[in-house]
Design brief:
677 residues; alpha/beta; Rossmann fold; Immunoglobulin-like; 9-stranded mixed β-sheet; 5-stranded parallel β-sheet; 12 helices; 34 strands; 30% strand; elongated
Length: 677
């Protein structure tokens, strides 16, 4: 048996007080008159014997009561078998998991409140001279120091749910670092969490420098549905057209969700999209047609109704609708009437034709597609600019000229690691394959016609495949050669057509149901689809084309809650902004120089890692962590403070001594009443 406050044992000297009282207590004799003194001697002997027994028992009871009370104040306990370190004050680290998954419910409270209750019970079980660290998933700088008992209790009351989630190994490392700064000899760690599998890389505990206590909190039922993600089928959202939006919804529950309400909010206008049924642990893909009636930036939100975990019920995203899709035709002698007819000026697409001798290379970034129309020679300066343009996200279509300078053509192709240009061939060839799976022709036709009339050529170049190039064939000849192919280069595309567009060599331009959608889709192609949404904590850099000249210009990101200045780097025609974890709340944000002039709209969402309610069981935790750590189930355990003391210091005995003191006092009362003097 060990005492927490052994100096209280000096109070045992007070046991001399009742002994002194009993030794020096003399009762005043009373005169009693007897009419007959025959039995006086016998009565005197009997009365003296009873009095001595009564006084002796009373003395023993009082000594026992006072002694037991002194022992109770000295806080005796039987040491725990696994207790490490010497006696004395302690440095304690408590990890409080405040991630979003802690919004799940236990039998009586949400896990977050249950964790708060357990943390406060742990702190209460320690002494005033002990030092305590409170660590949360936020890894705040102020939580890297050791606090007093009162400060630790106040810090626990401040903790709120957070979008951050940390790996188990990183949390333990943080706790060890904090304990290493403490001066007390004994080091102890408490880890309160729901122990999600996707954030807990559990490993055996072998470090004997501190005592590890794991406190799993178990939810009453596994129930959550999340909007996982959303994306448009087309890389470019077009005006006055139904743009299919795919929404991915996950059911992380053990039961089916028969009627989950889904709604879309577009530019502040909400419209219900009906209800869906999702099987237990299932995934549902919903298609919503988004029709946009005006150009510019648009803010949207997918919403579902689900409880109790609600952080993943909303998915915020944004997209841009251009006023025009700009196409540049580069010609040698005259513009192509076929291309002029394909891009009428009153439509969504805008065609600009320029001779290759009058090009303004710095304006290439303003065009979605550049068409090289039958240039006999591609100058090296133009080729160099085209390579840079494609790598930065542009699209180039090369329509060859008959009897062209293939050396300049192949120089451009080699710079892009694309297929090469072979000899000019005059034999007729037929196209018999169209790639419906690629974006260029995917969803262009309502049905995939077997009798679709495909083009043919009277003369063409042979396209020479490179082993190192990555080619996607769009239209293929019957003999297996490529007629139209594309190469993904950097963030853009390089398109090749084996024959000139002139009717003397090919009837591609006359195949309107092939040629027109092919040109439109080439202009709409993007090598890297721009994100419509970002994830808080993951996407710490954002690329934007909203470049404004002027070194004094400072970009800002914000919404109605607040704003901040991101890190800024300029790369070619792009600007890379560093968010650096400055966004903490999901929602719609604006990129601007001045609040009155919005340059770009951004949607940020919480990480969906916390949506997956898959947890380690008590048995799994103990198996993975080993026998050197204590695992105490924290959801239903009673009298947790005493449980902590029992696990930490040993078995407390002060209550038993207090009860024993009361028993002695009760026994004294019985002695005084039952034994007559």
């Amino acid at each position: 048996m060990i005492f927490v406050y052994p100096y209280f044992l000096w109070a045992l000297l007070t046991l001399a007080i009742p002994i002194i009282i009993h030794l020096f207590y003399f009762r005043r004799y009373k005169t009693v008159f007897f009419t007959n003194v025959q039995f006086l001697k016998e009565v005197k002997e009997q009365t003296a014997a009873r009095s001595r027994i009564k006084h002796l028992l009373t003395l023993l009871m009082r000594l026992g009561a006072l002694g037991a009370l002194v022992f109770a104040f000295a806080m005796p306990f039987i040491p725990a078998k696994q207790q490490t370190g010497a006696e004395g004050a302690r440095d304690v680290s408590i990890f409080f998991d405040n991630s979003f998954s802690m919004a799940a419910e236990s039998e009586d409270l949400r896990l977050l409140e249950k964790a708060r209750q357990r943390a406060m019970e742990i702190i209460t079980a320690y002494d005033n001279e002990d030092k305590i660290q409170i660590l949360t998933s936020d890894f705040e700088g102020r939580d890297q120091r050791l606090l007093s008992k009162e400060e630790a209790l106040n810090r626990i009351l401040e903790i709120q749910a957070s979008p951050n989630s940390r790996d188990y190994s990183k949390i333990i490392s943080k706790q060890k670092n904090a304990l290493s700064s403490g001066k007390n000899p004994n080091k102890e760690i408490y880890y309160i969490s729901d122990f999600q599998k996707n954030t807990h890389d559990l490993s055996p505990h072998t470090d004997s420098s501190f005592k590890l206590n794991l406190i799993p909190l178990l939810s009453a039922k596994r129930r959550n549905v999340s909007v996982d993600s959303a994306w448009f089928l087309s890389p470019v959202v077009t005006l006055n057209q139904p743009n299919p939006l795919i929404v991915k919804i996950k059911n992380h529950s053990e039961v089916e969700m028969p009627a989950l309400r889904v709604s879309l909010t577009l530019d502040g206008q909400q419209r219900p999209e009906g209800s869906v049924a999702i099987a237990a642990d299932g995934v549902y893909y919903d298609t919503i047609n988004v029709t946009v009636l005006k150009t510019g930036w648009h803010a949207a939100q997918i919403n579902i109704t689900d409880f109790p975990i609600e952080f993943d019920n909303n998915y915020y995203f944004s997209f841009y609708v251009s006023e025009k899709i700009s196409v540049l035709e580069v010609f040698e002698t005259r513009p192509s009437p076929v291309l002029q007819a394909a891009f009428p000026s009153n439509q969504y697409f805008s065609l600009v034709a320029q001779p290759f001798t009058q090009l303004q290379y710095n304006e290439f970034a303003n065009y979605n597609l550049i068409i090289l129309n039958e240039l006999k020679n591609i100058p090296s300066g133009l080729a160099s600019e085209l390579v840079s343009y494609i790598n930065n996200g542009g699209n180039v279509l090369l329509l060859p000229a008959a009897q062209a300078d293939l050396a300049s053509y192949n120089q451009l192709s080699n710079s892009l690691n694309a297929n090469g240009w072979g000899s000019w061939q005059t034999q007729p060839r037929e196209v018999n394959f169209i790639n419906y799976e690629d974006f260029i022709f995917n969803d262009v036709f309502e049905t995939r016609k077997d009798n679709l009339k495909l083009p043919n050529t009277k003369a063409n170049y042979s396209i020479q495949r490179k082993a190192s190039s990555v080619e996607t064939v769009l239209l293929r000849y019957r003999d297996g050669g490529s007629f139209v192919c594309k190469h993904l280069v950097g963030k853009g595309h390089f398109f090749l057509i084996a024959a000139p567009l002139s009717a003397d060599f090919s009837n591609l331009a006359q195949s309107g149901e092939i040629f027109i959608p092919m040109l439109y889709r080439m202009a709409l192609s993007v090598g890297t689809v721009k994100k419509i949404a970002y994830t808080i904590g993951q996407d710490n850099s954002i690329e934007t084309t909203a470049r404004v000249s002027g070194a004094e210009m400072v970009y800002k990101i914000g919404n109605e809650i607040g704003e901040f200045i991101p890190e800024q780097r300029t790369l070619a025609n792009r600007v890379v902004l560093g968010v650096n974890n400055q966004i903490k709340t999901a929602g719609i944000y604006q990129l601007f120089l001045e609040k009155s002039n919005n340059l770009e709209t951004l949607g940020f969402n919480f990480d969906r890692k916390e949506s997956n309610l898959s947890f380690f069981s008590l048995e799994d935790i103990q198996k993975n962590i080993g026998d050197q750590a204590n695992v105490v189930e924290g959801s239903t355990a009673k009298d947790f403070s005493n449980l902590v003391v029992s696990q930490n210091k040993g078995r407390p005995l002060w209550k038993w001594f207090l009860i024993l003191s009361l028993i002695f006092l009760a026994a004294e009362t019985l002695v005084l009443r039952l034994i007559k003097s």
